[in-house]
Each structure stands twice: as structure tokens, then as C-alpha cells.
Amino acid sequence: MKKIVCVLLTILTTTFAFAQDVIVTKEGRKINSKVTEINENDIKYKNFENLNGPTYTMKKSEIATIIYENGQVEVFNLSMNTTPAPQSNVYNTTPYTQADFKNAKTLRNIGIGCFAGGLGLSLVGYILAVTSWEYYGGYIYFDGGQAVTGSILNIVGSAATISGIVMWPVGQSRMNKIKRANPQGFSLFENEKVQLNLALGGNNMKLKLNF
What we know:
It is a single chain. This protein has helices at 2-17, 90-93, 98-131, 144-181; strands at 21-25, 30-38, 42-47, 55-59, 63-67, 73-75, 133-136, 139-142, 195-201, 204-210. It is α+β, with helices and mostly antiparallel strands and 211 residues long. The protein has 2 domains: 20-79, SH3 type barrels, CATH 2.30.30; 90-210. The strands form 3 sheets. A 6-stranded antiparallel β-sheet has the order 4-3-2-1-5-6, with no helix packed on it. Helix 3 packs antiparallel against helix 4 (144-181). The longest helix has 38 residues, at 144-181. The N and C termini lie far apart (79 Å).
């Protein structure tokens, strides 16, 4: 019995949905109606909720489509809302300021510093950990303090490197975004080049950052 009731409700709902004409205006407004007449310049219709009421008239130029009760669709005008709105000067309306750019630059520079410093700490920690073991005179000597120090430096350096890998591109991305929004903008945008030079020679390692 419940299945029969559900089927009947479905049929009634479907029948009701297609028993009306739907007028879609250029602004996207939908009017449930019963179209009674279509002229050269306008259409006439009745409100579907009051079919015995007055007859309304609407210009075709205000209508995008009409979806009739049998499912047929008549297209009147779909190109009215496709014209892009005029855009004002991006530089004059940008929400970004020089402070935003400086903050993004600072984040990038901190990321570069963490990355470079983290690599250095990790390398020093690795060297200390490796050299804490020494073979001499047939015996193996182990410096526990040096090994712990090396491990700590390695962990801290790895954390700093990972932080730098995150902050560096985030800051640079923000800087680029602000630059694109200010094509004629701040003088801070000029000569924003970053160089990271790593030089190895003998037992020395040098890191040089150019901002």
C-alpha cells in the first residue's frame, strides 16, 4: 500500500511540474505561468497560481527562454548577460599596500634564512655524529656527548630547513601576487632577485644570500 501511495505521489508531482510554463527573464527570474499569446514584440501570460486572474504582458527583449509544460524550450535571448562588466584600473582599486609587500618579502627572506641555516646546522650535526666514532689502536672510541650534540643539531637543522621550504615559496607567491595586482606599483617591486650561493672548499663551507 505504501509503495502505491509513493508512486501516485511521484506521478502527481511530475504532472504538476510539467503542467506550467516557466518564463526565465534575462536577470534569471523564473515566473510560473501559462503563456496565452506570443506576438512580434511581446508575450501575454497568466500567473499559474491565479489562472482566472489578469493577463500580463512582457516584452520579448526582457525574456531569455520559455520552458513550456510539454518540456519544449523556446530561446529568445541568451546573450544579454554575457557582456563583461567594465573593469576599473587594477592599480587604483588594489587592496594591497606597501606594508603587505614588505610583510610578504620578510616571510620569504625568513624562509630563505631558515632554509640556508637549517642546511648548515644539519651538515654540522651530521659531521659531529659521524666523527663521534673513532677507530684507534685496534679499539673503537665513542664520544657520547658529541654524538648527542650532533643529533640535536641535525634535528634542529632539519626542522629549520623544512620551515624554510614552506615559508620561502609562500612569501614569494604573495609578492608575485601583489606585483601582478600593481603593474605600475611600488618601487619595492624592482630588482627583487634572490640568489643562494653555496661554496665548498676543503674543510670550509660558505653560504651567501643576496636579496
